[in-house]
Amino acid sequence: MTIWTRICRASSDMPQDLRGGFPTHWIRSGAGPRQALLIHCSLGHAGGWSGMLAGLDDLLNALAFDLPGHGRSGDWDKRGDLQQVSMGMAVDLLEDQAQGQPVDIIGHSFGGTIALRLAVERPDLVRSLVLIEPVFFAVGLADRPDLKGPYDLHMAAYTAALQAGDMSAAAQAFTSVWGDGRAWDLLPEGQKQAMTKRIHLIAEGAPAIYDDVAGLLSGGKLERIAVPVLLIEGGTSPEYIDAINTALARRIDKSERLAVAGAGHMLPITHPKAAADAVRAFLQRVPVACSAQCGPDMDI
């Protein structure tokens, strides 16, 4: 059975309802003592966490939801800021499913930027953060403006295809940079069609990650994050990811970093055991009753 087949099966026959005013589909996994919320990457869906969560079933009682326009959640209707609407869905799920108690938040890529925004705007709901390659380019380029030119060049084929309206070419170019390392021609046809259908959502999320429309860089907001934070990256990922995590680590006092050798941007799927092991080691040092005033190995 392929990874994609397992993901699709894991995402079927699960709840769907309005969350944050948006039609939201979610899945649950595990029966552990720790409540957790997982937020997937762009072009993915909640089932993409299945491999990693298989190694955490005894530790986490996890909830993962499909972002707008992804998986089995509603189609994106351009009702506003994609990141903000996604965060509203997350807040509603937490207030309902976790009774508003703080939980461990795990986010990957664009999902990592939503998790980061949650920690800034709703710290009462966050016990700890695991950010796997969060694509908050605004913070990385703020500290490393010299990377803007190389990054634009790296994304030039995607940008040109998008401007030309060739969604298939745009999806192919995008995944060549941010995919799991497989050539486009080797991907299952259904996966290629799904990514082509959703590729427009990358641009919908751009104002949040490039222009910081949420204002996370202003007023010392990131510096006030007081919960423990684990920043994970792939050992073979682009330099821009290192710049982002370096910039976040500079601003967040209770942060630590970990690189997964041999992994790239899609490490929760390509290296699920390594990702699970990293999350487990981190969370085992964060008390279940941890608040904004405690961190790993600290008494509460």
Distance between the termini: 45 Å
Strand content: 15-25%
Secondary-structure class: alpha/beta
Q: What is the CATH class name?
A: Alpha Beta
Helical residue percent? 40-55%
Poorly predicted tracts of residues? 1-13, 295-300
Mean pLDDT: 92
Radius of gyration in whole Å, from Cα?
18 Å
Give the CATH H-level superfamily. Answer: Alpha/Beta hydrolase fold, catalytic domain
CATH architectural designation: 3-Layer(aba) Sandwich
Count of separate structural domains: 1
Sheet of most strands: 8 strands, mixed
The CATH topology turns out to be Rossmann fold
Shape: globular
What does it look like?
It is a single chain. This protein has about 300 residues and is α/β, with parallel strands linked by helices. It has one domain: Alpha/Beta hydrolase fold, catalytic domain (Rossmann fold, 3-Layer(aba) Sandwich). About 40% of the residues lie in helices and about 15% in strands. It has helices at about 5-10, 50-55, 80-95, 110-120, 135-145, 150-155, 155-165, 165-180, 190-200, 200-210, 240-250, 265-270, 270-285, and strands spanning about 15-20, 20-30, 35-40, 60-65, 105-110, 125-130, 230-235, 255-260. The radius of gyration is 18 Å and the shape is globular.
